[in-house]
Amino acid sequence: MTVERRTTRRRDALSKERIVEAAIDVLDTDGDRGQVFRALTVRLSTGVGAIYHHVANKNDLLAAAADAVIAPVMSDATTDGEPEETIRAIALGIFDSIDAHPWVGAQLSRDPRQPAVLHIWEGIGGQLNALGITGAARSDAGAALVNYVLGSAAQHAAGPGQAPRAADRSAALATLATEWEQLDPAEYPMVRDEAARLGAHDDRAQFLAGVDIFLAGIRTL
Amino acid sequence: MTVERRTTRRRDALSKERIVEAAIDVLDTDGDRGQVFRALTVRLSTGVGAIYHHVANKNDLLAAAADAVIAPVMSDATTDGEPEETIRAIALGIFDSIDAHPWVGAQLSRDPRQPAVLHIWEGIGGQLNALGITGAARSDAGAALVNYVLGSAAQHAAGPGQAPRAADRSAALATLATEWEQLDPAEYPMVRDEAARLGAHDDRAQFLAGVDIFLAGIRTL
DNA sequence: ACCTGAACACCGTTCAAGT
DNA sequence: ACCTGAACACCGTTCAAGT
Q: Angle at CA B221, nearest 5°, toward A198 and B114?
């Protein structure tokens, strides 16, 4: 059925969209430390130069890939319901994206001016507006929430509990708990105390608890 | 006067402390992208292998260097005054360190288990304790504040306004404002709105405003 | 035990040559 | 205009040989 197309051009033309799409796959599989460009030439059966014809450099590629992940999440989460509820949905949407694509967590911290971060700003700023917060107060509240979300994202992406299988995850947490229990109680009393709670630890629930703390603080503005 | 020492050993022995100290200088000057190890061999007049004898790898070196910057800030800021005031002092101390050593901003996001991050946890957790917050509530509140601080740190370190001279800084902000004013108003209404405020923007004050929003949220727990 | 530095490995980027 | 892929550049890491 696709014979016509197949004879007119043997393969889809390269485009930034196709490259970004392939890059997301590669990054999900190998992480951002792997040989991203080399893997792309294989997957797209092309040369490196062709990729550089559509993309300025690795930074540009990662920024575009992160935005391709984040932008749709933002528009999906942004509904016309309760602003606070929408903010929670936005935050959870970002959290879940980073859980699925850990490299996005690190990427968002790399440059505050990249499209993905601006889209997050837009989403959160719009809801603060809807809450009647404007001017400098909105700047401050927006920065607080955005920075909290990005900080949590980076820490979550870099943390243990990122192991693909649940068994590896709980094993990693157990190892960490043992490590922390052996720390000097004089220097690290709090961390040792946390070790006891690691087993029942739920990053996602804790992330949401943090969003609620900020929302409560914003209500006092 | 130091003749005796000079003749017994021609140069101080290498140690992790000396390497870390030199690394902080190198990182401050060249950033973490520069050829850190090569610069270290020059500064310490030694070979790369000697450095690897005291340090496992670049990650280990950066983690140790970040902790050498952060740990003293934490113990200086931690006094027995008002817990909320101490939390502000801790947060500002971290902010100012990252302002002085931008590479620390990125490093703290790289691994939640590194000593510098654990020290931050200790400092903040201790003050939350003093506020009477314990158990799971302290975990949640602590995670929220630590993640906010680390997120702000990373964004600040990666942002403009990091130019050494004030003139470069305001030039960078002006360029950014112009860029943002040209964004599509339909896609980026909030960011365009922020552009107008960029001139008077003070990252440090906004960071502190975020800490205060968080503290207000904590009071409602 | 500690140091030396050449060699290696890794991966992003360039560039001359092709269609 | 777009693609090809070998060559280059950069920088962390290893390792055989020294003291």
A: 35
